[in-house]
Amino acid sequence: MLIKNVLLSLSLLSASLMIAGCSQSLVKNEIQNNKALSKKNLNTDSYDTAEQLYPQVKLSITPELSAKGDYIVGVKTLSIVNPKQLDPISQTLKDRQLKIEVWYPTDKSLIKNTTKTIYQNQTKLGLPFSIKANAYRDVEVHRAKDEKYPLIVLSHGYTGYRTLMFYLGEHLASHGYIVASIDHTDSTTAEIDVKNAPWKGFVSTLLNRSRDQQFTSNYFTTNGNFLSHVIDTENVGVIGYSMGGYGAVNTIGGCYNFNEKTAAMFTGIKDPEQIKKIIPVLNSCAGGQYANAVVSSKWKAAMAFAPWGSQYGLFNPESVKSIKTPIMYLSGDLDDISDYNSIKDLYKQTGSKNKYLLTYENARHNIAPHPAPLASYANSIDMGHYIEGSWSTIKLNNINKHFALALMDCHVKQKKDKCEYLNLPESSNQKPINDKVPTPWKGFENRFSTGMQWLNN
Known about the structure:
This protein is 28% helix and 21% strand. The chain contains 14 helices and 11 strands. It has an 11-stranded mixed β-sheet with strand order 3-4-1-2-6-5-7-8-9-10-11, with helices on both faces. Strand 8, helix 10 (317-321) and strand 9 form a beta-alpha-beta unit. Helix 6 (202-222) packs across helix 7 (243-251). The longest helix has 21 residues, at 202-222.
């Protein structure tokens, strides 16, 4: 009945869905002004000519756990299919195809004469780019004798792409994790036309973000695949950014809480009767469940960068209070997309005994992506997808790597010594107290742990 109702409701979707984006005329001008740039050789298949986004020397002032691990990193691109899923665009049930970038541990003996690969994608306005990876394409996975590698599911925002946080995928894989990063169908920069239909995929995003995360976990932990012999099938983590964070909170039990106002706002449906029918479809929980939803016991930790949705009351407070999975929220205190105060309230409402909030002072929403590629410098729309006004993206990425490893090692691998990196004083700034300068946060160099705030339980 739910599926029947939503098929009827989605037939009434407005072409100009709910949220006001940048003006059509501005987008049109940006695209026209940069046609010439898009024709330049920004999209190559050569490692030598691809962009290098990160310095090749390790900076001594970077956080301790941002250092590369002992493993060389392999990477594969897979296509997986979740059968008979509701497609809100065609308003039918159809197989949902997902493209996955998978990073995993390998070693020197397995890379042979292979060279490092590249990641190719495009900006919001469709300008192609190619960036250097620190991983080897399609090499064999390292066969651990006694160790199994836990799975981390990585989930981008709206819009985004599976390599938007490749630095986290490579970093965790170098420390003995398998990382599966999703291209969320209907939600990628390659699929969404910001000129003519910027919100075409948004309803699909609302319905599928958590479902995609849960299905990806199920695929790698229950189905036969090239990692089956080395994967830890019982210990899984999830990392989501923006809409990926919206999904991650749901995946670990923060059930959606759409009402008539928000359902109408985010679907474009105007008929009150159809709105009432779609509300129970939107209000899923724990990866697409409804009545008596049960969070998978495999989820051992979640990391939510700037999670969207709490500013509109889209999470049921009682369900958030019942979350048991350890979770770290990360946000800029000037976030005007997901709203910092709402994220802080979500943290306070979360019932887990192991919950954390890392706040970047004077940061807005772009705290998770890799550094801006050259192509994005051509216009403000593309550049606005990556940069932070007061922060170096490389510095943000290194801090993110540090805390991602601390969280996952502590709660997924149960390495208790890594939990010490999560037991921190509230401020990182080392402001003198009674003329005594506090020690820096654990893992940070003296005088270089500035600009952050920390809460835990």
